[in-house]
Amino acid sequence: MTKALLPETIRAPFARYSHGMEVPAGHRLVFTSGQLGIAADETIPEGVEAQARICFRNIGEILAAAGMEFSDLVRINAYVTGREHMAGYMKVRDEFTGAPPPASTLMIVSGFTREEFVVEVEVIAARAP
Asked: Could you tell me which residues are beta bridge partners of residue 77?
């Protein structure tokens, strides 16, 4: 069983995430590549929330292929192209993640491979065998 690390000796997280996650020895790990907001039919919706939902749905499919689910997430790295996308991304992230929330980093980047992308998400998941 993974364990959220939230030391009371440091400032509480800014949003819904854990400062760290402990993964006991023997757990299986899954690392995803960054997922972009592009659907299987090659469409790219406008807006960070629509794109983030595609990112997380794709991640859900990858996790399912490994016999895992969102409750197995221990780390999220996300990238958005502007501060105006942060709240929308976090809203969608919180819809997909359970308790305790995984460790998480959100960065603002100058762009992705195609101009219409505004968010990219990669995760690490862990589950006991």
From this structure: 105, 122
Asked whether the whole model's pTM tops 0.85, one would answer: yes
pLDDT, tens digit (0-9, with 9 covering 90-100), for 59-118: 999 999 999 999 999 999 999 999 999 999 999 999 999 899 999 999 999 999 999 999
Q: Which residue ranges make up each domain of the chain?
A: 13-127
- Tokens 């854990």, residue located: 18
Is 13-127 a CATH 3.30.1330.40 domain?
yes
3-state SS track over the chain: CCEEECCCCCCCCCCCCECEEECCCCCEEEECCCEECCCCCCCCCCCHHHHHHHHHHHHHHHHHHCCCCHHHEEEEEEEECCHHHHHHHHHHHHHHCCCCCCEEEEEECCCCCCCCCCEEEEEEEEECC
Place of tokens 């907001």: 37
